[in-house]
Amino acid sequence: MNKDFRKVLAFPYIIWMAGFTIIPLSLIFIYGLTDKSGSFTFANVLAIFAGEHFKALILSISLSVVSTVICLIMAFPLALTLKSKKLDKGSLIVFIFILPMWMNFLLRTLAWLSLLEKNGIINTILHFLHLPGLNIINTPAAIILGMVYNYLPFMVLPIYNVLEKIDDNTINAARDLGANTMQTFTKVIMPLSIPGIVSGVTMVFVPALTTFVISNILGGSKVLLIGNVIEQEFTKGSNWNLGSGLSLIMMIFILISMAFIAKYDKDGEGISV
Amino acid sequence: MKKKFISTMTVMSMLFVAVLSGCGKSDAGAKAGSAGELYVYNWGEYIDESIIDEFQKETGIKVVYDMFETNEDMYSVIEAGGVVYDAVCPSDYMIEKMIKNDMLAEIDFNNVPNVKNIDSKYMEMSKAFDPENKYSVPYTWGTVGILYNTSMVKDDITSWGDLWNTKYQGNILMQDSVRDAFMVGEKLLGYSINTTDKSELEKVKDKLIEQKPLVQAYVVDQVRDKMIGGEAAIGVIYSGEMLYVQNEVKKAGGDFELKYVIPKEGTNVWIDSWVIPKNAKNKENAEKWIDFLNRPEIAKKNFEYITYPTPNKAAYDLLDKDLQNNTALFPTDDMLKNSEVYKYIGDEGDNLYNELWKEVKGN
Fold first, then answer.
1. Which residues on A lie below 8 Å from B354 (Cβ)?
2. How far, in Å, are A186, B346, B358 from residue B196 at the CA level?
3. In terms of CB atoms within 10 Å, which of A106, B45, B133, B287 comes out highest?
């Protein structure tokens, strides 16, 4: 294939990227850095330090950190189990695990609403068994649950991916050389799975940080996250400038995450799911 | 503002699909399209859809029917101009905003003879936002009130203040929309629902923050489902939803009743009216559409489906006595004496409300 032909093949993607990535992104920059009359200002970006916005950001960060940690704690053992299974058995479990992801994200979150409601399915069962009810709907706890449920696969798959690539001989070699199970884990498996962990953490943390749907549905709109603030500016406040300015702040977090991936996952192992 | 069970996201994705495919829903009648097209933009589930078919069959006009969820969503779509609509159905204050921004065309009432069926009372009320009755024809109207579950609430509910009663902690539903939420506090404190006075609004904000621990959730459409399911004891709702929720409870054989009251402090009286945007391409068809909807039997049929009170006197006269005398639905003038229509409060007013609302939510 000659080079010119390759360029032609790349053309659709370039148009796609220009139309749906570069132009929208530039628009966000333009909106974010101007006021309603169109003159340049940093006010929309600095607005993140205004009381309610900053509070929402801190709350978003805390909830996303908690969710990410929970996801990690749940995902790592699962990924290890998957690795230890025979290939086809393991992939069946992976298949079952990602099956719910084929259903719409919104529907899955709404399902949690009917599960957790005061007269919802879980509470009905608990009452039937004369157990105390579960009252976490419309609280940050319900939001964390929603985040963990929705984003857990994004943690499992990258970790599973890197773990699977660790040659069994590497582990056997460690054992031959006298390492016990713990040492094998901390000195061999852990360091080798860092790229997957970093990708997983990023892929959970970033969407959790910016979500507004989960907090609206499971938080009863009582918990204001930074995603809700931005959404409100666009849809209700029709202040696109402020909304864009705050989105730029979110972009900083995304860039930091990407920098981490670039540093620890040089070969893109974790994200090649 | 007033529409039935469709969540924001669903509508947004539907809208997205509609924009992508470049067409809305359209059941072409036998000769549809022969007399041109009509682009209609209305609230979700805010019409008996068989009426659209009837209109198409009779006139041969092909109707492209799209839906929106909030006045604000509708406004940004019209403003962006990607799709040009011929007939749109916004609420009072939004119509005022559109008139101020020169976005509406004057309706030629010679083409809408059935406007005579509208009770003059509502044309009078419309003057709050359309001072000369030039741009809008009322479609539905109603109040915002309190809906409560008679088995969970033993007292008689009469006041907005009942939404601050600690007895109902965790069982109160508030509207998740700035103006409606603030309206409750404003009426309770005796202010106008159109106030832009900062010190008054600060007090309303404090009042709403004080209420927040008692509130189960801030919701829009879900009020209906949550009240039907007995999830909450008391909630803020539009009068047009009342018949629907009461019927659903009956159907489900619930052991409680849902009662609707207009609080004594007064409330927001709203009107949703048909308007024609200035850039409409099929203005005459839009007028035919508005005229069609105002035929007594069509308006009656539509009312029976959407259950939002009709301002159409001729249709009202066709209704059963029970419905006519249902004062929760068609309140007497005396019940509305403290009530107001929303007015457009300007960009600055909007911003102020939004800022304070964020503080309520973030607290």
1. 232-233, 236-237, 239
2. 63, 9, 16
3. B287
